[in-house]
Design a protein that fits this description.
The complex is a heterodimer of chains A (356) and B (406). Chain A is of the alpha+beta class and 356 residues long. Chain A has 7 helices and 18 strands. Helices cover 26% and strands 22% of the residues of chain A. The longest helix of chain A has 22 residues. The two termini of chain A are 19 Å apart. Chain B has 406 residues and is of the alpha/beta class. The radius of gyration of chain B is 22 Å and the shape is globular. The chains are: A alpha+beta (356), B alpha/beta (406).
Chain lengths: 356, 406
């Protein structure tokens, strides 16, 4: 699996292991793909006996959700909901669909719990630092370009600036009406959670249609594993059932874990360098980060609650982990972190049994 | 801004001000129009999302007889009641308008009942799967005091409206030919966990009720061309086959149409579920210019010997291989005054939003709908006839009476 242009090379579905677990086994698999958010999403669906046409129909429904969200969450599309909110929410309460409301609520929660290290209202700051470039030098009409997704052709154009337009309270919420309001104009950038959110929505569709085994990823940096591949082998000693084999690339060597019923987000600033500096904004300095971790991975188990957003949450929490180079203090229950910083590896609480 | 920039900008502004403004403010109402959305499939959920943006409308009811779809749809709209029978929605007095987004062959009963109940109706297009049903809907609309809007979105799309002003103001001049396509690589099959509902969910692949790519997709683009040219189809020769999805279906996954528009002009149409290249567009070749429309975007390609209009010098342009297109921007004057003309490429909202906005505006401000029942019926019937041509493998000749409605 080769990351496409614009993707972080931080993680990859391990080809060899995937072949062992999913492709080389007698059960055929269906591989579907789509382009969204300027990256490639792939979905692996092992044959579950319902027939290829019916299986494809489920997969296409999941990918259609991703494509639709890619269009609406892009801050560079005039007809997306992000631009709609920027136009209308400073003027008063603006209704959004309740699923997007849940995402914005999650973003505000992670912002508060991380003391502002994750902040989706950094759009203007990112633009100031040239993070909103696009392949042709103009506005990107088709994809989410965010903190970790922006094209690297644009250079930094400013030094440390004063942070005046970002805050965890920059969005007000009315949960009864699923409405939001911006006390002052701001530029939203959901690029740090959009892929994870799209995967959450897609995984919900898959599970609602009875899929018990699937792997879906966006740009190889946001991943959801449902169940495990057919014929997956359990770990030695029977400590855990098998899972989807995922490789995480890091300066201290590749690590492989078996992912099962969980979301995984991987972030590595070395995959995104601009003028020798990492492509990550540190809100505390209002400037590109220094001394960020080399690689972070956040692992969050899937929940039965259809409203849960584990992949979006994992995406969001990679940012504080990256900037602080340690496990964030307020990770959600059951979440684990893997961090590599200055050549030292912290497995933290990630269950070692997962590591292959 | 230096003097040269000022002169350039102000001159450009004056010139661009000649471009018509086609983006109107959203309708407002002290008491939002109560809306019931019938059908919570993909289109129904998209409709819910766009209606959320309109402060003059409030979704009160969402209806679907599939519990899973209904649950999913309700997750997007705060406070809406979920029902499994559209007649329950029609009984609510606070529901003033109904948006129908069910399978095409179910439109007739809902539309006719809704108008009989005094509700304003927005019906997704095509209006029906048979000519009889289409005419029945049009007849009900004619006999009703309620508004009826057909969901042929092109007529409400600001880019299309802008391009049409150019088309009809001699910028294109003599129409030479029309090319159009709607392609997307997809099986057109939808999932269901209930085997008993397989046929109902995948009605598009059921030859008993499906009008195929020609009826479901081409009808929209036939409507755009009818609206632009005021020419109705006089003949259609369709060709179709299963090129990719050999899964037992009989509905063609690839269709080509040659549609006669009067004696001299023909419209070629390609519909396919086997390729995605260039998605969905309409191209009107003219003596002086060619207009290309792609739903959220539009361009005009001038012939070298065509007269130049002043504003063109300042317009935003895009290169397409060896051709340069003038970008058609719906709110060019406003954006030019803000120095953001390039930001105006594309639309502030999806095309669907403007069709729904037109509908709500028509109710609130008592203005005409974007596409009325008569026009909607004609384009629907043209699509049905196109599908008949594909299925039978023979050309059909169309006279005014065939497209006409009572």
């Amino acid at each position: 699996m080769i990351p496409r242009g614009g993707d972080s090379p931080a993680a990859a579905i391990d080809d060899a292991s995937a072949a062992t677990c999913a492709v080389g086994a007698p059960e055929p698999v269906l591989l579907l793909a789509c382009e969204a958010m300027r990256t490639r999403f792939e979905l692996v669906l092992p044959d579950d006996g319902r027939g290829a046409a019916a299986l494809r129909a489920v997969g296409e429904a999941a990918l259609a959700e991703i494509v639709g969200l890619g269009e609406t969450l892009s801050r560079f599309r005039r007809d997306g909901v992000v631009r709609h909110l920027e136009r209308t929410a400073p003027g008063g309460w603006t209704r959004v669909d309740c699923e997007l409301f849940a995402l914005l609520s999650l973003c505000a929660q992670v912002c508060r719990l991380s003391d502002g290290l994750f902040d989706v209202t950094l759009g203007s700051l990112m633009r100031t630092h040239g993070f909103h470039g696009s392949r042709d030098g103009g506005p990107d009409d088709h994809g989410v370009v965010g903190l970790e997704h922006a094209n690297c052709s644009a250079g930094f154009t400013a030094g440390v600036t004063t942070r005046t337009t970002t805050s965890c309270d920059a969005i007000e919420f009315d949960p009864v009406a699923c409405a939001v309001r911006f006390p002052r104009p701001l530029e939203l950038d959901l690029g740090g959670v959009a892929k994870g959110f799209a995967l959450d929505r897609a995984a919900l569709i898959l599970r609602e249609h009875g899929i018990r085994s699937a792997l879906i990823h966006g740009g190889t940096s946001s991943i959801i594993a449902i169940g495990s591949p057919p014929n997956a082998q359990g770990e030695a000693g029977g400590q855990a059932a098998g899972g989807w084999s995922i490789a995480i690339a890091s300066p201290v060597g590749n690590r492989r874990l078996l992912l099962r019923d969980a979301a995984l987000a991987v972030s590595a600033p070395h995959g995104r360098m601009v003028d020798g500096r990492p492509h990550v904004i540190d809100p505390r300095r209002s400037a590109p980060a220094v001394d960020a971790a080399d690689v972070v991975a956040i692992h969050i188990p899937l929940a039965d609650d259809p409203a849960a957003l584990p992949a979006a949450s994992a995406d969001a929490w990679t940012k504080p982990a990256l900037l602080e180079s340690r496990r964030p203090a307020h990770l959600p229950p059951g979440a684990s972190a893997f961090i590599v910083h200055q050549g030292r590896t912290s497995l933290d609480e990630l269950p070692i049994a997962l590591w292959a | 801004m230096n003097r040269r920039d000022f002169i350039h900008t102000s001159t450009g502004l004056a010139a661009i001000a000649l471009m018509p403004e086609v983006l109107a403010a959203a309708p407002r109402s002290a008491d939002p129009i109560g809306v019931a959305v019938i059908g919570a499939g993909r289109q129904g959920r998209a409709i819910m999302g766009e209606l959320q943006k309109l402060t003059a409308a409030k979704v009160l009811v969402l209806c679907d007889n599939d519990a899973g779809r209904l649950r999913s749809g309700l997750g997007r709209a705060a406070g809406a009641e979920g029902v499994d029978d559209y007649r329950t929605a029609l009984e609510r007095r606070d529901v003033q308008a109904v948006v129908i987004a069910t399978p095409t062959h179910e439109h007739r009963a809902i539309a006719v009942d809704a108008m009989a109940a005094g509700k304003h109706v927005y019906c997704e297009a095509p209006l029906a799967h048979t000519i009889d049903d289409t005419r029945a809907i049009a007849a009900a609309a004619a006999g009703s005091s309620s508004l009826f809007a057909a969901g042929f979105e092109g007529r409400s799309n600001p880019v299309y409206r802008l391009a049409r002003t150019f088309y009809r103001s001699d910028s294109v001049r003599t129409l030479i030919a029309v090319r159009s396509q709607h392609v997307q690589k997809t099986s057109w099959r939808f999932p269901t966990s209930d085997a008993a509902r397989e046929r109902a969910v995948n009605w598009r692949l059921d030859p008993e009720v499906s009008i195929g790519l020609a009826g479901e997709l081409a009808a929209h683009q036939i409507d755009v061309i009818r609206w632009y040219t005021s020419l109705d189809p006089t003949s259609i020769h369709g060709f179709g086959s299963v090129r990719l999805w050999e899964d037992g279906r009989t509905i063609a996954d690839t269709v080509q149409l040659v549609i006669g528009l009067g004696k001299a002009v023909q419209m070629q149409w390609l519909g396919s579920l086997a390729t995605s290249f260039e998605s969905r567009n309409e191209i009107l070749h003219g003596e002086n210019a060619t207009v290309k429309l792609a739903w959220s975007h539009g361009w005009m390609f001038k012939e070298a010997d065509a007269p130049t209009q002043g504003w063109e010098v300042y317009a935003n342009k895009q290169q397409f291989h060896s051709d340069e297109g003038i970008t058609l921007i719906a709110d060019a004057t406003k954006l030019a005054s803000q120095g953001k003309l390039k930001d105006g490429v594309g639309l502030p909202n999806p095309s669907l939003y403007y069709a729904l906005e037109d509908f709500i505006r028509a109710i609130v401000e008592k203005k005409p709908v974007g596409c009325d029942a008569v026009e909607g019926a004609k384009s629907t019937i043209a699509g049905i006839l196109a599908n008949q041509s594909v299925v039978r493998g023979e050309a059909v000749t169309i006279d005014a009476a065939t497209l006409g409605v009572a």
